[in-house]
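Lab notebook, bench 4. Still working through the backlog of constructs that have no structural model yet. Next entry is a single chain of 469 residues. Request: give me the structure tokens for it.
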Amino acid sequence: MSVVTRENVDALNAKITVTLQPEDINPKLNLELNKIKKTASLKGFRKGKTPIGFIKKMYGQSVMSDVVNSLLQEELTKYLQNEKVQFLGQPLPSMDQEQMDLDINTIKDLEFKFDLGLTPEFEVKGLDNVFTHYEVSLDEKAIDDEIATLKKQLGDRKEVEKDIEEGDFFKVESEEVKEDGTSGWACTISLLYKSLTPDAQKIFLGKDKGDEVSFDVSQLEAGKDEEYMRKYLLGVTEADADTEIGHNFKGKISEILRVFPGEFNEETLKKAFGENTEIKDEAGVREYIGGEMKKWTAKQTDSILMRSIHDKLIEVNDLEFPKEFLQRWLTVSAQNPDQVDNSDDAYEGFVKGLKWRLIGNKLAEKHDIKVEDADVLESAKANMRQMFGGGQGVDDALVTQYATQMLEQEEFFNRSYASAFNDKILNALKDEVSTEKKVVDKDEIEQIMESFRKADEAKAVPAATAEEE
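Model written out:
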């Protein structure tokens, strides 16, 4: 009978030894060999009549390896489940594991050793802190701005003759001015005013059709490299790839296009909110937008509260982890081990995610929280609605279809699961933690959210994440 033993190296590391004995291996081995015998069709023998000795000689080593691996995983899994071992990642073959001689003709005891990283024992601290829960004050101007944006989206783009202004699209018939004053590359440059740098906006603001301008083409749009400039502004093709082009240009404004706001009528309202909309006029639009903004800001303030709780619990719960084991596991479990970032910063990023997962699991157990498939789908649908511009006029069946397809991608599923999990944790903690209300405007909430995004972008997290735990 198989024997499984455990040796605790320290509080965070253990060794598991699984010993498979001949009486465990032989029955399964013979069963698999006989399965092959029934279906084998080898030259010189009728189907199903090949001698077992011949089958053993032909397929024995391969079958032996499969049987041993299957038994090993079965015994290891059964032990970890029965003993309720709390571990991280997955068991890894020990570095001192001896090479196994799987000799089908001389089956003997087989001993396999595994290293195991153990989950640290702790109780969640930090929930006695007072957290700020923001409340957004929505004034009429915020709603007016949203309505103005919607009218522009529903409006028509028409050509105008004068005064380039914010939001305009225009074209400049341009030509390069070489150092000797002669003309070089000629093209039509198409520009959107709001995409220009502040200095470039000063050049074009208030200009009329037919006005002449001089400019540095490399300074028109911020953050764009030479390749972008040549391809998208100057229209350089592969055929002209070797052509040298300077940055100094002059040109004449040949066309100015401006979006004129649309009006709310039956046609535009259906376009904005769907064929079955019950919104009939601007008053209805205002009521709808006000309600949606309240929902949006409430979700943002909840998100900030959750982030505050998350960061505080990460800070005050100083958990220790088996670093050497986890770094080895991250490398072994990666699809491309050679590309794993083994830097301290990458490891710390992973550990923070793992720490929150363990804290979250403790809280989920305390509040009997479970994330069902339906919760993950709703989280994914909310993400899809944001991609569709907030979901205005988008059929729920279409959103569900896209969300279901996206959930087949592991990264998107993990993100949707984490979002659903955090939402449930937050709902449970709202009644447990103490909060103080702070009223702010919509712009301040957006600034806080932007600061979170920038902070997250600055912290690189390795491909293998704590979600896999």
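Notes after review: Residues 3-118 form a domain with the Alpha-Beta Plaits fold (CATH 3.30.70.1050). Residues 460-469 have pLDDT under 50 and may be disordered. Flag for follow-up if needed.
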